[in-house]
Amino acid sequence: MAYRYDEQSTPPAAEQVTDVAITRFEHVFEVDPRLMAEHVTQQTFPNWDTLRIVRSRTDHLAWMHAHWCTTVVSGEELLAELDAE
Amino acid sequence: MTVTESLAQHVVDSLVAELAPVLGDEHVLTSKTARWNRARVPAPFPVHRWSERVPDLVVLPASTEEVAHVVRVANKYSVAIVPRDGGTGLTDGAVPERRGIVVDVKRMNQIHEIDLENGTCTVGVGINMLKLNEVLGKHGFIYPDDPASYPCSLIGGRIGTSGWSLVGSRYGHSRDLVLSFDMVLPTGETITVGDGGGQKLTKSSSGYQLKHLFMGHQGTLGIATRATLKLFPKPEAEFSPFWAFADYETAYRAVGALPRAGVATFAGAVLFDEWKVDYLRRDDEAYIPQPSSVKALVCAVAYGNEDEVRAGGRRLMRIARDLGARYLGDEISEGDWAARHDRYATPLHGRTRNGQVAPMSWHCEDAAINYTRLPAVRVAWHGILDRLRRDYDVFDDWGMFAYTSGNTGLDYLTEIDVGIWEQELDDRAWAAWVDAKREIAAVSLAHGGSISACHGSCREGEVDLVPEELGGAYEVMLKIKRALDPNNVMNPGKYGLDRAYRTEDS
Amino acid sequence: MTDLVPLPDPTVHSEAGSSTEEFVAEWRNAAYNCFSSGHKFCREVCPVTQVTRNETWTPTAFHANVVAMEQGDLTIEDVAADYVNCTGCGACELRCPNTLYTGDFYRFRTRTVDLVKGVRALAVENGIHQPGWQRWNELTDQRTHEPVLGEQPVGQDQVRDWADGLNIPIGGENILFVDCEAAFYRTSVPRAVAQMLQLGGYEFGLMQEQWCCGGPAAEMGYVDQAKRFARHNLDNWHASGAKRILVLDPHDYISFTEDYPKYFGAEFDLEVVLVIEIFAEMIRDGRLTPHVPIEKAITYHDPCRLNKRKGIWKEPREILRAIPGLDFKDVDRVTQWSYCSGGGGGLPIEKPELTKRISDVRIGKAAELEVDTLVSACPWSERPLSASGDEQNIDVTDLHELLAESLGITVGGRRGDT
Ligand SMILES: Cc1cc2nc3c(=O)[nH]c(=O)nc-3n(C[C@H](O)[C@H](O)[C@H](O)COP(=O)(O)OP(=O)(O)OC[C@H]3O[C@@H](n4cnc5c(N)ncnc54)[C@H](O)[C@@H]3O)c2cc1C
Ligand code: SF4
Questions:
Q1: C154-281, what's its fold?
Q2: Measuring CA to CA, how many Å separate C321 from each of B185, B438, C250, C276, C403?
Q3: pTM, whole model, 2 decimals?
Q4: Which residues of chain A does C100 touch, with a Cβ-Cβ cutoff of 8 Å?
């Protein structure tokens, strides 16, 4: 992943998802920036940083599961078994 | 509230002269930053009054003997001592209300022994559970004390608060998991507290059962230094379904039915009310896209052997399905549960009345309430906050959780989360908040509950109601305090225990 | 939609000669965002706190101090020395729930590293110097390079000595930038990198007149100097028609992808590429095939500035897995958020004993795995890790050195003192 200033400082266009949230990157929500106009203003966020956080979060959650146990039982599977009864 | 004066410099100098030769110069701290940063815990407090609770000095002992030395010196000079471990406590327990010496025990974080055959380990109280479990995991064990501060609270604080664990319905809470510990009493003697005389027993009937007494006292009865903990086999499997409900009532029924199902691997269930769901819709990726028909949520969690977790899990799924719940899917369920060990109120979650983001601190009210009283407490509590929020635009209602405490659905840690914008919190708003806390606590008592299931009830406001809550038992508390701490040096100012000393003077 | 407001640039105020009040005004919300959380999820991942257990030197305290400064309770004089105790590893700010769970959502995350740099800069601006750092930066200024060899000379006359015999041209579109530690102390690393690039057919040259990237000066609070150095390098690249900067050192990678963009904005129009990513790609597409078996039991040390601060952890593992013969006992990247060599942020200059304690712990973790070698990918980590490794009988090797060996390259150069 080569770094280029112009690429990194241009986030994808925003799409409104709810009254208070938007998305720019696929499956990544952000606060509607209009809500951060008075008391706290947003920071400059290069794209790599958003993606770094998103990926680290996923990794961290997977780590937490592994920290507590070996397998995670799927509710979807159990529900399918129940529904098949 | 009266503010305690700082100690005179010559007293500080004498204390340093007595302490430094034993603890080492670098472990007796008097710098401003050392003191200011041990004057706070995460519980909200007006920022402009920070300096009122700054200690005179800080020590970082490395052994029980060093702690005992500090305690003896404090008695000699009649100076307050405040045990501090992780500093994550939410009831101001580790805040030096009478200044004095903060005894920061974080350096005592060694693992002294792992007894693989009996399934125990002995540690210094400065160790953190997650860090400990990184080591225990390699041996196939886990120490399952799992507060939402799992990666940051420490064993000494767990003892000092007698903490509550998210998976306590399966494994018990701190008091069940800590088998015994060494305790430096307020006069400097050291005892070992546990069931009977052994260090590694879960049950003894020999003598008074002092373990309970020496847990949850918020550092008012001494300082624990080394603890022996009960270990469990690291679970093979985990199951953590999250379900959506169209109304609170049904969700409430579910959170009662799940523990009552008698599933052995059941480790806990949580109910999220309508306010909590609204809260999550603001900034939680799992809930932003949920349809507006979702009004309440319930999650359950089970740990154990895979076959047993599967069998029990099926039962839990059936109960929820039969109540009309919608399973939120594996991705949300697994992600959200994994985040429960450490995800907590983000300051930017705060919103002013016009919806603008404002950085707010998190107040966590944590009453113990019986199942049948949950709906009524919820209505009363939200009412109190609603009035408060109307009067002051520095508070925000972040909704309620009800978590199972035991495995039968008898009582629930009932939590209302309040956002408080401390940056803008003036004395008037603080006074209104203290009143509100008192009212919140009164509601818990009116419903036959307890002010705190988890953190302790030392905070301004609610603490006034502790004598009412405990009745005659509070008088016994005063007698014990006085007997064990004749000079009132151990964390004075907490729980109104100063009364123990006033009685005699008058 | 409102425009985004730039994040506090820890370096801006010092140029303007501004006061503590301005600093505090700039940082108040960021500091308060931590103060009002106060939960200390950062504590157990902080390398300094892990070994000192001293709450005065935690990310929590570093933020709270700013709030106390706003209250008028503390001054820059009171706090300056505490801020030495940070390696800039970035663990705290990534682990912080305000980053990890909601940083992307609010476009507002915990920035301990920037804050620490900012306080250090404020201290320097107020004439409060840490003696070791002051001397280090004076010498760097004189020599255009960091005094990594102590009294031995480092400067323009020696900066390309590492490349002796490799026939690397000067200039061109792709410039290999070699940090001071690698250029003068651990010369085996740039030699390995250069020869692998040559083997893979990647054209590149060296800078006409390379100066230190300026990152260390910025980290220690000597901001004007840092910017002067950065300006020199940028001008030199522009003058020689460079388009792409190849970087082997994670610290440089941070300077070029974080500091330079802040200093220069759109004027910084070059591409920055980490060579590890090039090598991983070359292995993937067959331009490089490691074939000489290396019979070693190794584990990998995630350099903080790659793993925590940039999220780069896959490619190094990909490379290691491609080397035949290795018995690779990996420790996952999340566990390694709490690992550090102690070599960053200027810590070894001011507090070598603290760096050593941190390195000892890191090497101890490797020893538990019963490996004989710890592989790193950051020259700055390799000196302290090697020192601890010598004591615990663990060899510390650079990833590039190891890969070069497996490609049959005779690397040459020296691995520091050893
Ligand atoms: C995000 C977050 C989530 C939380 N979730 C939970 C939860 O789910 N369950 C829960 O129970 N709590 C929770 N808490 C509260 C807190 O983590 C617990 O109260 C914890 O037990 C405090 O531990 P600590 O090490 O931080 O102690 P501290 O805050 O340092 O101390 C707590 C009390 O214990 C006393 N003390 C400290 N060390 C000793 C010692 N060695 N001997 C005697 N007394 C001592 C102190 O004086 C103080 O009164 C949460 C806190 C946060 C910030
Ligand atoms: S840096 Fe983050 S994790 Fe640490 S105390 Fe501050 S808010 Fe909490």
A1: Rossmann fold (3.40.50)
A2: 56, 61, 21, 14, 10
A3: 0.96
A4: 53, 56-57, 60
